[in-house]
Amino acid sequence: MNLPPKVTPRAFARLAQINDGAPGPALRVAVAGGGCSGFQYDIRMDDAAPDDLVLEAQGQRVLVDPVSLPFLAGAVIDWSDELIGARFTIDNPNATSSCGCGTSFSI
């Protein structure tokens, strides 16, 4: 059985900052074909669809569509704020390789 992705408290906290602490648009994490490694992450604010997996904490939601779910099984969605930039990151155990920027991967 595939484990669902997890979202760190730091990622939920950043999402709450984006939404000014109120429930607002959810963060959608999806996988699409393309990128320099074969697949790429699509991370954006969105509304929930009926068949989405909804991960919720701190009044905030992260969405994963059913097509992307097998690619993100066991992944950890986090927030990184470093000198090189701030962004949502994905630690994906299914990825066999990834590009330098972390937005595309191969399986």
Automatic annotation (TrEMBL):
Domain of life (superkingdom): Bacteria
Stored InterPro entries: ATAP (IPR016092), ATAP_core_dom (IPR000361), FeS_cluster_insertion_CS (IPR017870), HesB-like_dom_sf (IPR035903)
PANTHER family, alphabetized: IRON-SULFUR CLUSTER ASSEMBLY 2 HOMOLOG, MITOCHONDRIAL
Domain Core, first and last residues per copy: 6-102
Official protein name in the record: Iron-sulfur cluster assembly accessory protein
One example GO MF annotation: iron ion binding
Stored PROSITE patterns: HESB
Organism: Paracoccus contaminans
Classification lineage: Bacteria, Pseudomonadati, Pseudomonadota, Alphaproteobacteria, Rhodobacterales
